[in-house]
Model the fold of this input.
Amino acid sequence: MDERASWETVGEVLRGRGLRWTSQRQTVIDVLAASNGHITGSELVERCRALDAGTTPSTVYRTLDVLEDLGLVRHGHGADGREEFHVLPESRHGHLHCSSCGQTWEIDERRGEAVADVLRAGDGFEIDIGHVTLVGLCQQCADTARA
Amino acid sequence: MDERASWETVGEVLRGRGLRWTSQRQTVIDVLAASNGHITGSELVERCRALDAGTTPSTVYRTLDVLEDLGLVRHGHGADGREEFHVLPESRHGHLHCSSCGQTWEIDERRGEAVADVLRAGDGFEIDIGHVTLVGLCQQCADTARA
DNA sequence: ATTAATGCAAACGGTTTGCACTACT
DNA sequence: AGTAGTGCAAACCGTTTGCATTAAT
Done:
């Protein structure tokens, strides 16, 4: 009991809690495992549909809820405000989104810690760096803008 | 021409651009001027309706678009991903939202600069600190959680 | 008189819900 | 058999759009 959830053990963990292991959940897990660590709700739905054409949004979102309970994903919000899910296990990282070129980068743990330090030093705020996507201009676009 | 917009001069600036100064826009401006610097789209609609019961969402959102063109507001996204408008002129600041108690604080310019420095130092990313609301735990809630 | 702006109502996209049905345990 | 999970369709919320009408210039 009280097993740690991971992609391989989700099934058992679910069953251990009286929940069930279904092919739809399998599909969601497959897509999450193949994602690069973050994905929006609707992207997830699309990709699931690619694997299983019968995928329903409601099932996907409901599955995300239980996976969040298990600690396998955490939700946040992307640059445009849409729900975004961070796939665990992974280092707690944040995201940078360039509003000019549209690319997204990760903020590695070290740099995230530095940001957290600044805010903590200010007034003790414990930031959850992974909850939102920071927006701005990447070096390249910033340079272009200055030129 | 090329006038700088401000709450007092919006009317002239609009007219200078061939646009019009209407009572509905007046209402939106009134609400914005009375706001504490940030407000969501739907909040704005509500408050406008309080002043003028006939306020329509479409008009409010369309007005926000032109005000953004004039540089009087900038849009971003709040903790829950909803559109949030920052009212100018004001120092470029960010927001901190405590996911536990729900309160929101401002990140003053100095601290925002410090955060920007960290990211700029990392890879030259020019963050727009005002575009998103950072989420985490305020000191009080963080302490409670630790206890 | 022009044409920008409004109000309405409908459409949108992403997400959530109620409910009868299916299928894991 | 029991009940968690599903699929569907409809509802939701905030926001956007088309279009005929109103009103600022």
Remarks:
- The two ends of chain B are 60 Å apart (CA to CA).
- The mean pLDDT of chain B is 86.
